[in-house]
Structures are given as C-alpha cells and as structure tokens.
Write a structure and sequence with these properties.
4 helices; globular
C-alpha cells in the first residue's frame, strides 16, 4: 500500500478512536434498528464490518447466529 493510503487509514482510525470516547447518545439506536431489520431472519453467519462498539452485533445476535465483528479502531472494540 502507498504512504498516502497508510496515512488515510491512520487518520480514520484516530477519528474513530476519538468517537469511541464520546457518550452513547449518538442516534445509533435508530440506525441499528434499521440495519437489524435488513438482516435475513435465517442468516446464521453475519460479518459486521466497522462493528464499532458492537451494538448492532448485540441487536442481531441469536442462539443460532454466529456474528463476527471487525473494526479499524482498537478503541472502539476495547470499549
């Protein structure tokens, strides 16, 4: 990857690390409810790219569904 690409990734990661420190009042509940409504009921494996705090993953989790979440920001995952 190019140096410019690496710099962009570093800036994006830093932005989301900062967002991870904000309070939970972000409107995410409505957005996550909308996204959760798009997951097919029979889905047994789900990949959430950009999982952030894992709120959507938690909303769509069932006993029969395996969810893998990945995020560029270690702070988002740690929180």
């Amino acid at each position: 990857m190019s140096g410019a690409h690496d710099e962009h990734i570093t800036r994006v990661r830093a932005d989301f690390d900062q967002i991870a420190t904000f309070g939970d009042e972000s409107g995410a509940d409505r957005y996550n409810a909308f996204l959760a409504s798009l997951v097919p009921e029979g889905a047994v494996e789900v990949l959430e790219v950009g999982c952030g705090l894992g709120l959507l993953s938690g909303a769509i989790a069932t006993d029969r569904r395996s969810i893998t979440g990945i995020d560029l920001s270690p702070e988002m995952i740690a929180r």
